[in-house]
Amino acid sequence: MSDDYKVIGSVKSRALRVLWLLEEMGLPYEHVPAAPRSDEVTRFSPAGKIPVLIAEGVPITDSVAIMTYLADKHGQFTHPAGSIERARQDSLTHAINDEFDAVLWTAARHSFVLPEEKRTPEVKESLKWEFERSQEGFAHHMAEDGPFLMGETMTIPDILLAHCMGWAVSAKFPVSDPRIRAHAAMMRDRPAFQRALEA
């Protein structure tokens, strides 16, 4: 494997998004399946959060920042900065982060991340309601004329949304909107996703 890129983080985390994008791009990488707060992680990310991408010897953290960097650098799965299409793409990315990722992460924090005495498990029912309600609003932003969120062109929000919906199923959150369900199924059938799972 090439040492051009090194991805640090378990495939059962947001690192899967980065691995998936690298597989879609056909780029070589090294994968270190480290757990949060492990020595392999904290030497690059003092907070212990994963994933971490090492590019040109520099650690980059946050899965969406990593995906954006890779897409911009290689000119794939993104629209050009400063274009209306990129503004729409970024609005989808931020909406997915705000309405789905953040809700799932809050549920995870109150399930196993926070110290037990700081958890409020009852909040998860409210989070499930919010997660389901957000799907209907988000589905109105999905393109009608293509298989991907923006139409015929696959962009990084497609990976982000599909990852969140897989996470939701694992966390027993409702994925009730039929368009979002169909999108997630289509995305997870992609060969690059299957390769990323095995990384």
What does this 3D model show about the protein?
There is one protein chain. This protein has 199 residues and is of the alpha+beta class. Helices cover 54% and strands 8% of the residues. The protein contains 8 helices and 4 strands. It has helices at 15-25, 39-42, 63-74, 84-113, 123-139, 156-170, 178-188, 191-197, and strands at 5-8, 30-32, 52-55, 58-61. Strand 1 (5-8), helix 1 (15-25) and strand 2 (30-32) form a beta-alpha-beta unit. Residues 82-199 form the GST C-terminal domain. It comes from [Roseibacterium] beibuensis.
Q: Determine Rg (CA atoms, Å).
A: 17 Å
Spatial strand order of the main sheet: 2-1-3-4
* Largest sheet report: 4 strands, mixed
List unreliable stretches of 5+ residues. none
Structural class: alpha+beta
Counted beta strands: 4
Q: How do the SSEs run, as a string of H and E? A: EHEHEEHHHHHH
- Mean pLDDT over the residues: 95
Shape: globular
The helical percent reads: 40-55%
Strand content: 5-15%
The separation of the N and C termini measures 12 Å
Q: Please give the count of helices.
A: 8
InterPro entries: Glutathione-S-Trfase_C-like, Glutathione-S-Trfase_C_sf, Glutathione_S-Trfase, Glutathione_S-Trfase_N, Thioredoxin-like_sf
Domain GST N-terminal: 2-78
Domain GST C-terminal: 82-199
Protein name: Glutathione S-transferase family protein
